[in-house]
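Data availability (excerpt). The following record was deposited with the supplementary files.
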Amino acid sequence: MSDQDNIPSWLEHLKLLMPPQGALLVGAGTGNDNWIRLFRQWPQLHVTLVEADARQFARLQQSVGLLAHEGNWQLIHGVVAPQHEDTVFYLASNASESGLLPPEALRPFWANLHTQEQQQRPGLSLDELVGREPDIGAPNGSIKPTGEKNTVDWLIIDCLPAGALLRGSHSLDKLDVVVVRAVLDSDNDDAGAEATPHHTAPADTGLSDITKLLNQHGLRLITMEAGRHPAIGHALFVRDSTSALQTQGQALAAAKKLAQEHSQQIEQIKKERDEQAKAANERKAQIEQLTQAKATAEKLAQERDQQIEQIRKERDERAKAANERKAQIEQLTQAKT
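Predicted structure:
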């Protein structure tokens, strides 16, 4: 097992390799842990500390309140939940275990742990805290989304269940470093932790499931260390640049393929349009030809009608002349007799 300063030591090195723009600590407690001591050494860093327990938050204000007023730190008294909605916050007999998880779910680790009070509280999502500019100097507990460029790229979740908070977030791709508190199940023994007694992890607390989730967003497990109980500790995840580049390359390839498909669809639509225009022109030409043929036929019919009328007229005139000649002959015949 690594010593208890293992992860803070890693963070000191990572600050040189991938300097943070801003850090968010969920479950800041009283302000006397390793994370706060580490951040105090980086005065230019924008830090947001969130604590839900009113008793803990009061001590946090006393511990780091001056930095919140004069430096780049902001303190928020609120409950971080998977979604922006009302949620139940459990006050535990051990204040360090207060949170979204019923304390009784942790009795396999601490047999005497119990719930002192349940509070219905409005929940803040990780996205609200990660996807905003630090509101330096704002009143404690205020959240001021700005829509500007995200500045939180280091996230520490020092409470349970970290898995539920992470799964409800759409901001994981923005993070370079993530530290979570989790149940150190046996599937992750190869990451640097000593074997621990087997305990069934409460929902969304097991490190195996958290690792799978963060791996999907390009974050790789680097190390882990046990805490007050050997089966519960912290794990450090760091963005895998190679994986990120591969993901970006896959996204670009997919976008290129989609653009090609759209281009082909557009070309097909143009082709069909041209074919339809050609067919329409051909139909127009046929209609014009039929119209001309009809006009010609009507003209011929009219001429034939005129010719027939002329023939009838001439026939009537000839019949009339024949009748007149016949009458004359009859008159001459009668006169002769």
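Summary of structural features: The radius of gyration is 45 Å.
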